[in-house]
Amino acid sequence: MRAPGETLHLLLATALQLIGCAAKAPQPQTKGTPPLGEVMQWMEVYNRSFCQPKEMLVPVSEEHPAEVEHLLAPSCVPLRRCAGCCADEGLQCVPTRMHMVVMEVMKTRYLHSHLGQLAFVEHSACECRPKTNSKVNPERPGRPKGKNSIGHKHKKKRPPERDSPHLFSCPPCSDKRKRQDPQTCQCRCRRRSQHCRDQGLELNEHSCRCEKLRR
Hints:
Layout: H1 4-24, H2 42-49, E1 52-59, H3 60-63, E2 71-73, E3 76-83, E4 91-109, E5 112-130, E6 178-180, E7 187-189, H4 193-197, E8 201-203, E9 210-212
């Protein structure tokens, strides 16, 4: 017959073993609920989401619209561009420093392929800056004012400075083959007419393609 103290020790040991098994047992999941993964800490979330250069895939046709006559491989390239969140909705993530990078792509035209080099712009540094309006409302003609304004000269307003690459006064061109003249706001072909003449062709100002000379 065992002593009462020995029996108490056996009961405590058995209880501890049962508690340990219950702690190790997997918790039942509710049906339809995905399993919880590892929680990402706040500092890691912030460091990965704030305004900074990030690698993204950019279509080559957007950077070089003049290459539409070729089939390019790959059709998109990895470039570091500014992206991320700013602390205020009135701010946007913009590049403050850029550099050029040259990449090789395969160009194919009429079953003839060759390697070519194309230059792309990459962003080296970014910053959150106030958003600027993409369109500037045209000035309305001045109305005659009261008697108090007679004899006073009106100062001419200076046009907005164009020192910022993100300030545009004209709406963008709808055709990617054309670019905008900042002085006249007219969309003109990116391809030069001399490029077509070198091939014995002429530039179509509407389609921005090289076509056969008209006789």
